Amino acid sequence: MNNAPNTHGPNTVGPNTRSDVSVGLMPTGPFAPVEWRISDGLVGYEEALSVMATRAAAVARGEAAELVWLLEHPPLYTAGTSAQPAELIEARFPVHTVGRGGQFTYHGPGQRVGYVMLDLKRRAPDVRRFVLTLEEWIIRALALFGVQGERRDDRVGVWVRRSDKGEACEDKIAAIGVRVQRWVTLHGFALNVAPDLSHFGGIVPCGVSDARYGVTSLAELGRAATLSDVDTALRAEFTPLFGAVAQDQALRSTENNSSPRRSAISSAVASR
Predict the structure, then answer these.
(1) Does the N terminus or the C terminus of the chain have fewer Cβ atoms within 10 A?
(2) For residues 260 and 44, is the Cβ–Cβ distance under 8 A?
């Protein structure tokens, strides 16, 4: 599947953009607002994959509204389509091989994971623009906590300069890995709020082995933000970039914290 040509939206990307692609993916017609779901407790990874795949397929068929699903996972590692075996240093936690783009990453308590199921046919069939807009969304949310997140030309995700660690040092605060099936997006981002950062030591996070680049969190940066605080910031900055959220879907949901369901992921375009 080939990406459609880029189309420009009303917003421009923040500092250190990878290209001249504009950000923003507003719907192009009178579509239903995006459903916003927050799950309390830890959601099993296989369960989340199954729920996400089922919902994305329904979105593609026009049978369900688009969805942003915010949750936490128990400690685990995921291996994307570009992961190399040598990048798994120590399998301290379960390792899940998945079809999203990218390499190894960690999920666990204290990290806000966002699964974003949007129909790019209704917006702009441009995967690169979608990834840039995800980054911009997180950058804007971080700014509400006084943290300057930035993007890099050669590294996907959101980065924070760490001059306190040395010249040219930077830490990743949010990882991004997506998959697209029938122009509906799956997976999304993982934003470090207050996870145990030592858990990243079992992998080469996102394949970035340069000693100047590490991982950080809002807590490590001295921001005493809760997951609920982060959810509020994410919601505030979502609408200017992606459009309206259904007003009656902002309630916390525990409906997906039950027993695991079988994972079902089909082939798709991946972006790392």
Answers:
(1) N
(2) yes
Average pLDDT, the chain: 84
Instruction: Write out the catalytic residue numbers.
Output: 206
CA angle 26, 28, 30 (to 5 degrees): 105
CB 40 within 8 A of CB 231: no
Averaged over 87-102, what is the pLDDT?
A: 89
Phi, psi of 134 (to 5 degrees): -60, -45
> pLDDT tens-digit profile of 56-86?
999 999 999 999 999 999 999 998 888 899 8
Least confident interval from 9-23, 68-82, 134-148, 253-267? 253-267
* Longest CA pairwise span in the chain (Å): 52
- Angle value at C-alpha 235, between 105 and 213, nearest 5 degrees: 30
- What pLDDT does residue 252 have? 55
Between CA 256 and CA 128 the distance in angstroms is: 30
Domain boundaries, the chain: 35-271
Q: Which fold has domain 35-271?
A: BirA Bifunctional Protein; domain 2 (3.30.930)
Instruction: Report the C-alpha gap between 193 and 218 in whole angstroms.
Output: 5
pLDDT tens readout for residues 183-211: 999 999 999 999 999 999 998 887 677 77
